[in-house]
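Listing S7. Sequence submitted for prediction.
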Amino acid sequence: MTSSELSSKINFAPQHVIKSDFPTHASPDFYGRFHDFQPIESDSNPSRLKGTVWRADAFTLGHIQNGAASVERSRRKSEEGAHLISLQRYSGGPVHGFLGDFNVDRFPGNIYLFDIESSVKCVQFPLTLHTIYLPKAAIGFNPDTHPPLIQFPINTTVGTLLEILLLKIFRQVSATNQFDRLAYDELIALLKVAIHSEDQDQSVRRLAQNNLRALIQSHIEANLTSPTLSLTSILQTFGASRASLFRMFEAYGGVRRYINDRRLYRAVLDISKRPLVRGKVSNAAEKWGFSSNANFNRAVKRAFGAAPSALINTDFLEERVVGLV
């Protein structure tokens, strides 16, 4: 290989390529540095985290597969990653999360830019994740002016270009532990443009609709425990038509399904915090607006394939890392 070919590649030495296969909760240093995982137990859920990490001085690449779990980033871990952002692409299941009362759902296919400084709690379904951790300074990300989560829909120009570059980088690095330096430079340049300008594919009308949906989502999150929260109350509060609401929440299965799912994920997170407390399941179901334990049980079984009492592996602290591949 010539010197010019070497200079056009970013190479990873063997000691900087880390492959892992762990129980979900016992995430290795790279994943555990920023997240706490607790597996959701069901017969259909692989409670393992498998992946490869490529480390460089300026950035880190990660390609992981993980089963369903509740995930939390504590304030301490947020502070440790305060200088970083994460560019993420999901396939497989979605992630339903909360940043205070702010909705931070993420869906397969779209590209997301996440501020690691932000504390977050979420429920994730089995997924495959491509992610690049970058210093905020590399793209000019400013927490004072940029939101903690920026979405680049896959049906927009920016989203499509980001996906092409991400997959190009991961195909190369997975095969050879190296990739084109030009692809990395193009990715940084595209992100700089993307976070400082509106997506040109979005019309004014679509942008206004997205803003209204964000307001409605914030209203729903703040009123999830209220028995009066309903499709009718939202129509009255925001003056939107049923047809408009359907279009806004079509990807979620409609407003009623969206509200029910948000309550379900909040309840599951409550159960996961202290799973051994007597009455925890019943209290969570009542707090988040389920009319009966039977209705809550059916909702959990539909989403996770297991009863609420079986969701969280209470023996996970007794398990140990089983080794590196």
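Caption to Listing S7: primary sequence and predicted structure tokens for the chain studied. The two ends are 29 Å apart (CA to CA). DSSP finds twelve helices and 14 strands in the chain.
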